[in-house]
Write a structure and sequence with these properties.
The complex is a heterodimer of chains A (308) and B (189).
Chain A: H1 9-28, E1 32-33, E2 39-40, E3 52-53, E4 59-60, H2 65-75, E5 79-86, E6 98-107, H3 111-126, E7 134-139, H4 140-148, H5 157-166, H6 177-189, E8 197-205, E9 219-227, E10 230-237, H7 242-258, H8 268-277, E11 281-287, H9 288-296
Parallel strand pairs in A: 1-5, 7-8
Antiparallel strand pairs in A: 2-4, 3-4, 5-6, 6-11, 8-9, 9-10, 10-11
Chain B: E1 3-5, E2 14-17, E3 20-30, E4 38-45, E5 51-57, E6 61-63, E7 67-77, E8 81-85, E9 92-96, H1 97-100, E10 112-118, E11 121-126, E12 130-137, E13 151-156, E14 161-165, E15 173-177, E16 182-187
Antiparallel strand pairs in B: 1-6, 2-3, 3-4, 4-5, 7-8, 7-10, 8-9, 10-11, 12-13, 12-15, 13-14, 15-16
Classes of the chains: A alpha+beta (308), B mainly beta (189).
Amino acid sequence: MSWEPQATLDALSTRAEVNAKIRAFFQSHNVIEVETPILNQYSVTDLHIDSIATDNYKILHTSPEYAMKRLLAFHKCDIYQLCKVFRANEKSSYHNDEFTMLEWYRVAWSYKDLMKEVAELVTTLVGNNLEPLDVTYISYQQIFKKYAGIDIQTSNQADYLQVCGDHSLKLNSALTTHQYQNLILDQIIVPKLEKRRITFVYDFPVEQAALAKLNDQGCAERFELYFGGVELANGFQELTDAQEQLSRFEEDNRQRLLVGKKAIEIDIEFLLALKSGLPESAGVAFGIDRLLMVMLDVGDIKSVLSFP
Amino acid sequence: MANYNSNEFRAGLKLILDGDPYTIIENEFVKPGKGQAFNRVKLRNLKSGRVVDRTFKSGESVEAADVMDTDMQYLYNDGEEWHFMEPKSYEQFAMSKDSVGDAVQWLKGQEDCVVTLLDGQPLSVAVPNFVELQITQTDPGVRGDTAQGGTKPATLETGAVVKVPLFVEEGEVLRIDTRTAEYVSRVKD
């Protein structure tokens, strides 16, 4: 037992400085700060995200996405939120079950415009004038070609297994294409990226659309940001079609049942908001603790949390 | 048959993979923001001692190894098998030379060892960190060489050969560190 905090004073002040700069950034960009409930009646259906419930039948939010979109559907203006979110069973050097998320939405923007604003924010928070940060935009298909030598359009499971083998990743059991892609991106491609460069990966396979819109080329208009060797942010051209959203929730629940998880009660209030008309918008969720890890050059998320 | 879910993985946990018992040395949880989570695990094969890497899907279930570390006393070898006894129950266990492995060279009799049992059968044995053994053969040291800290080989009563300082003589009892097979000191009666 130790009562002492984990984070150094330097880590605490860097966090305070980052929070202040974020608020100044959005104030100067006319984006309104909002607060939505942490305790909610509904949760996410996402197959790979599990929420934490309290004993009075409320659920701690895993991201403020649904509530913020309800605000967006009603007020139709740019909003951001800086808040704690909670995810069950996530503990590692890059994960904590309670962490700080910055999430924001831009009405009438495209996800490509939003990537530029994310780069601008990262530069404001970590960059300096002497050493400006370089930015790369690369599609999901290109990044697999460039760093794993694999074409995701034509490759099959045997090809993915070969790539894993070439990088001494020995698997205990066979994976689906989608699972291979997750593993290869995270464990093979990302470690090869230049650490001091902001890298955006965009246009994901449809199976990884989550809450992103699909385009005519059969891609999900979704992006992820990598910096300092870690995934820092995930953004979407937001899905606005309530019917399509409902079928994705139902598909999530089918997948959950297949792997022995419980189906999640679908958030009807969120669906009603979409039905009433979510404006065309782009949104992004950004992990503040990981950004601090990169800024302070520490390898364990515990170093940036006061009491992990 | 008990199973472990990969969510329960931690260092020291013992599993069966491809029919062999393994212990987890390191477990790293990796998870993309919106994708499948994995456990990248380093394991040691309890039979061969070989270390391997394996990646598991999070949530995957793996057979648990019924492995128990038990304090036992080494009794004797009959030329084919090495015999150990659990001191409380007096139950005896016989191990083949292969299972005893490198421990063979330190066993004289009555050593307190730790025998690892898999499904009740001895799998491997760990000898004490320090043993005391008598020298059965070593060449006489040359006077005057002691200052240079030179060494010479000495054969011990178990057959093990270790490097000893030049001043050590045949018939003396030595304290040996079994982890490094190195001479520690002379033992005075």
